[in-house]
Amino acid sequence: MLKLIGSALIFLCATYVGMSKYQELYKRKRVLSGVRDGAIKIRDNLRCMCMPLYESFLSSGEFFENAASNIRKGQLPTEAVKEAFNANCHLNARDRECIRRFADGLGAGDCKGQLANVEMFISEMDRCVDHAEKELGTKGTLFIRGSILTAAAVVLLMI
């Protein structure tokens, strides 16, 4: 009886670990998609109305709203965006580098410079989102299946 309870507990714990790793990859993909969609809204605001960055950030998703609240506190847009991505734990080093380059380009003085920076950022974010989707498909599946197979092997050894 104890072997069955222990086996079930091991199986559940291993499956939970695999699912949590999968969730991390999924959250990363979701954050990157949100950032890309927000950048598209910012680009559209710049094209149509040449809105100031603070106003463009306000309606462009959670990531940029966090940056807008940092701007409201008195930070420069470059520093506000850097602080917003530092606060996000789901991004990896490659994602952070893309966002850092975007943040460094926010110092452009005119609307055309801002628009060029956002266009470049959108293309980089498209690549990051594609990479995250592929990683979710390969590593995510590996985490789930691997944890289940590992748990099954340990259970068989216990019995």
Task: Walk me through what this model shows.
The structure is a single chain. By secondary structure, the chain is an all-alpha fold. The chain has one domain. It is 85% helix and 0% strand. It contains six helices and no strands. 30% of the residues are buried. The mean pLDDT is 88.
pLDDT averaged over residues? 88
Number of structural units classed as domains: 1
- N- to C-terminal distance: 11 Å
H/E element string?
A: HHHHHH
Give a quick account of the main beta sheet: strands, pairing sense, barrel closure: none
Helix and strand content put the structural class at mainly alpha
Write the layout of secondary structure elements.
Blueprint: H1 2-49, H2 53-58, H3 62-72, H4 77-86, H5 93-104, H6 111-158
Q: What's this model, at a glance?
A:
This protein is mainly alpha-helical. The protein has helices at 2-49, 53-58, 62-72, 77-86, 93-104, 111-158.
Descriptive labels:
159 residues; mainly alpha; 6 helices; elongated
